[in-house]
Amino acid sequence: MAIDRNKVINDLSQLKVRGDNNGLIPAFGVLVQQLPANFWNGFSEKILDAAGDDLADAAEGLLENAAAECGYHTGYGIITSEEFNSVVGPMIEEKPEDILHGAYGVFTAWGWANAEITELVPGEKMVVRAYDYYEADVKNPKRPFAYMIRGVSRAFMDLAYSKPYPDGFGKFACEQTKAIEKGDKFAEFVVTKA
Amino acid sequence: MSTTTKKNGYTSLGSKITYDPEQKFDNKKMRHYSDGKTFVLHCHHYATLFTQLACDAEDMGGTTLLAEAGRETFGEVLSDYYQKHDIKELPDRIAIAEQYFSFVGMGKIEFNFAKNDGFAIMEKSHVDEGWKKKWGNNETPINWMGVGYIQAVWGSVFGKDPAKCTVKETQSIVCGASNSRFSISW
């Protein structure tokens, strides 16, 4: 692997953003906002509580899908951005595998999760391990709670191995097999073909 | 925005205060912090899909829950900031609330509170602009995050229980208006 993960994280975690004169942050082809993680966790907890056991699967699916669409569109914006190309671009030897590893550097640098790929079978399977993430702050969830990491991880596999953007969404699925919020030391995510 | 909207009541008019958060990246936990609170970047796809989920789950109070999440989160952010910086003057508190909204990319908002009611005008809105980019206009307002934010501002500025503040979006960018307007009562 040619990607210097520490350099990617160090360089891209220093980027500071703030709203423009309109209070908006247009970046990477989307509008971005920087909100407290508690807001996203708070609504997720509330909607899952309201859904109860009967509708939990449906609610979880929608939370995961929100992250997947975010990961697909913003992920594409990131890996085609000037910032990504200037920091990660010179390290890329094998496409799309090095791009995927670089994307998890950005994923970490932006504070989504301290996560990296631990296994990659091109076009087939990816295993991601996360050592810290904001969704782990939720206390005593009934089930693994990292919907954001699940959604974004399968979206990244779509970007790497499905049809070119924007026609390749939804070809992979992700399962969270370990969870800090459930007592594991780290979280693990297994992405395979849907 | 016309300054005539600011002639009466409590506004940020006259305040010279500037929102200045302490931001840092913890390279052990790999988290970003703003005034000690974890924050994270997300795009308009995420915000609008959360909003759509809330709207679709209306039979279980989805939009109220989304507003509630905003009310609780932003109420804590603003109250902690006022306390940390010993901000007591109402114009300064309102100014910080307006600046925070823009700083984090939620859009552009101005508040005007009278004795028993008030209003907010949102010239720009991340959620509305994002919804329009993703799906086009909508027949009804969708900015439940904004409703929660406005409740949080009222509660934090006046030191009251934000749940006792009623906010209604009366005009909406996502419905085709040039700005969004919210009535506030308590």
What does this structure look like?
- The complex is a heterodimer of chains A (194) and B (186).
- With 194 residues, chain A is an alpha+beta fold.
- Chain A has five helices and six strands.
- Chain A has one domain: Trafficking protein particle complex subunit 3 (Muramoyl-pentapeptide Carboxypeptidase, domain 2), CATH 3.30.1380.
- Helices cover 44% and strands 22% of the residues of chain A.
- In chain A, the strands form two sheets. A four-stranded antiparallel sheet of chain A has the order 3-4-6-5, covered by helices on one side. In chain A, strands 1-2 form a two-stranded antiparallel ribbon.
- The two termini of chain A are 26 Å apart.
- Chain B is α+β, with helices and mostly antiparallel strands and 186 residues long.
- Chain B has one domain (45-185): Muramoyl-pentapeptide Carboxypeptidase, domain 2, CATH 3.30.1380.20.
- Chain B has five helices and seven strands; from the N terminus they run βββαααββααββ.
- In chain B, a hairpin with a 3-residue loop joins β4 and β5 (117-125).
- In chain B, α1 crosses α4 (126-135) and α2 packs parallel to α5.
- The radius of gyration of chain B is 16 Å and the shape is globular.
- The interface between A and B is large, with 52 and 54 residues.
Task: Please give a quick description of this structure.
In chain A, 49% of the residues are buried. Chain A is globular and about 50 Å long. With 194 residues, chain A is of the alpha+beta class.
List the SSEs and their pairings.
The complex is a heterodimer of chains A (194) and B (186).
Chain A: H1 5-12, E1 25-27, E2 30-36, H2 37-79, H3 82-87, H4 97-109, E3 113-121, E4 125-133, H5 147-161, E5 172-178, E6 187-193
Antiparallel strand pairs in A: 1-2, 3-4, 4-6, 5-6
Helix pairs in contact in A: 1-4, 2-5
Chain B: E1 23-26, E2 31-34, E3 37-43, H1 44-56, H2 62-84, H3 90-103, E4 107-113, E5 117-125, H4 126-135, H5 144-158, E6 166-171, E7 180-185
Antiparallel strand pairs in B: 1-2, 2-3, 4-5, 5-7, 6-7
